[in-house]
């Protein structure tokens, strides 16, 4: 009876996601490459393990380790640190080393694959220590989700290293029959997780704008001085003019990188000013303006959906999450709640004629 290997099923599912998101233009090229690498590896796994084709058994470890550096380069691109294409060529050393092991030192193949996945996963976790502000190309309406998704991808790479270690242990302990099962399920699960995480809306594409005149990163002072606090305050005043005056927060594609370009400053300098002046990261700061805008729209009689789209949120899930974080209630609850139960800083002043009595509902 004809059967389809699980890795082929995973590749078909990820192919559908890739084509759909590329047609919609919602997937950045580095993430599309990551999805493509996962799709290719699923096919290679099936041809090597399920159909037993010798040439693909040799190729399988090489194509497998390509997923890790591709994930790393996708993260660096999201952090605005993609660099020159030649820099990415250095990461070809990982698959090249595994290919060398296949040809000259077969006993070292498993250790090499484990090391590649573990090292890239750990490096990604270290690179994500700065949180949401370290991803200037991420859409701000996604809130704190982008770094969480990237951390999940990094953890999945480490899980792959653990899965490969389990394969080696099974072979050494004389339970080699488990190898195909672990590869079939462990590797397929890894590819499915990485591919699915890479396609989540939280990592959705924000159109980039080439900025040939970006200012160099400002030198960090050893300690905060009165002059620096003054500069921070000036940046915040300019930000407020952009967000509150020009309603820039209503742009659903807004990113830290684009916001910094409007200010003529490095993205890091903008995030530092917001962090020091408000104690919030950039996405939470901007989404605060959006939520306040949405609250005013709802109070003016507009529907929750119109308020969401008009205030700069692109997805309902992000809107609901940020609205509840800022106001402590869902948008629908806000629409029917008495004024006295709302946060004072988000509630517009009551008109004089309504002060004498309770608000009508």
**Coarse morphology:** elongated
| Proportion of residues in helical segments | 55-70%
Oligomer: single chain
Give the count of helical stretches. 15
What is the gyration radius calculated from CA atoms? 25 Å
Write down the domain tally: 2
- Which second-level CATH architecture of the largest domain applies? Up-down Bundle
Give the end-to-end Cα distance, rounded to a whole number of Å: 66 Å
Secondary-structure-based class equals mainly alpha
| Low-confidence parts | 206-224, 348-361
Bin the strand percentage.
under 5%
CATH class of the largest domain: Mainly Alpha
Whole-number mean pLDDT = 82
Outline the biggest β-sheet. none
**Helix-strand string:** HHHHHHHHHHHHHHH
Domain HTH araC/xylS-type: 240-337
InterPro entries: Homeodomain-like_sf, HTH_AraC
Transmembrane segments: 6-23, 30-52, 58-75, 87-105, 111-128, 148-172, 178-200
Pfam families: HTH_18
Structure report:
- The chain has helices spanning about 5-25, 30-50, 55-80, 85-90, 95-105, 110-125, 145-170, 180-200, 225-245, 255-265, 265-280, 280-300, 305-310, 315-325, 330-335.
- Helix 1 packs antiparallel against helix 2.
- The model is unreliable at about 205-225 and about 350-360 (pLDDT under 50).
- Helices cover about 65% and strands about 0% of the residues.
- Keywords: DNA-binding, Membrane, Transcription, Transcription regulation, Transmembrane, Transmembrane helix.
- GO terms for molecular function: DNA-binding transcription factor activity; sequence-specific DNA binding.
- It comes from Aureimonas glaciei.
């Amino acid at each position: 009876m004809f059967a389809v290997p699980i890795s082929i099923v995973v590749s078909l599912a990820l192919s559908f996601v890739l084509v759909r998101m590329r047609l919609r233009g919602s997937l950045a090229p580095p993430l599309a490459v990551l999805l493509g690498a996962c799709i290719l590896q699923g096919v290679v796994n099936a041809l090597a393990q399920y159909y037993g084709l010798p040439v693909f058994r040799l190729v399988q470890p090489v194509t497998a380790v390509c997923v890790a550096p591709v994930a790393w380069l996708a993260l660096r691109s999201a952090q605005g640190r993609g660099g020159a294409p030649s820099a990415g060529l250095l990461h070809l050393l990982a698959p090249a080393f595994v290919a060398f092991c296949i040809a000259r030192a077969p006993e070292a193949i498993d250790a090499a694959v484990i090391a590649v996945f573990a090292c890239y996963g750990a490096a990604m976790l270290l690179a994500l220590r700065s949180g949401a502000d370290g991803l200037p190309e991420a859409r701000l309406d996604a809130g704190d989700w982008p770094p969480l998704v990237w951390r999940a991808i990094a953890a999945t790479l480490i899980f792959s290293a653990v899965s490969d270690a389990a394969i080696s242990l099974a072979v050494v302990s004389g339970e080699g029959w488990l190898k195909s099962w672990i590869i079939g399920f462990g590797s397929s699960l890894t590819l499915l997780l990485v591919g699915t995480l890479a396609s989540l809306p939280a990592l959705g594409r924000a159109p980039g704008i080439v900025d040939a005149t970006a200012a160099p990163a400002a030198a960090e002072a050893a300690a905060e001085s009165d002059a620096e606090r003054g500069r921070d305050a000036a940046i915040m005043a300019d930000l407020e003019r952009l967000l509150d005056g020009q309603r820039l927060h209503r742009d659903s594609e807004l990113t830290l990188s684009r916001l910094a370009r409007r200010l003529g400053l490095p993205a890091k300098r903008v995030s530092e000013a917001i962090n020091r002046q408000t104690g919030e990261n950039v996405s939470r700061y901007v989404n605060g303006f959006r939520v306040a805008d949405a609250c005013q729209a709802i109070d003016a009689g507009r529907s929750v959906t119109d308020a969401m789209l008009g205030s700069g949120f692109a997805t309902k899930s992000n809107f609901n999450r940020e609205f509840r974080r800022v106001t402590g209630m869902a948008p629908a609850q806000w629409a029917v709640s008495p004024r006295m139960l709302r946060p004072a800083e988000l509630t517009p002043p009551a008109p004089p004629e309504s002060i004498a009595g309770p608000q009508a509902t």
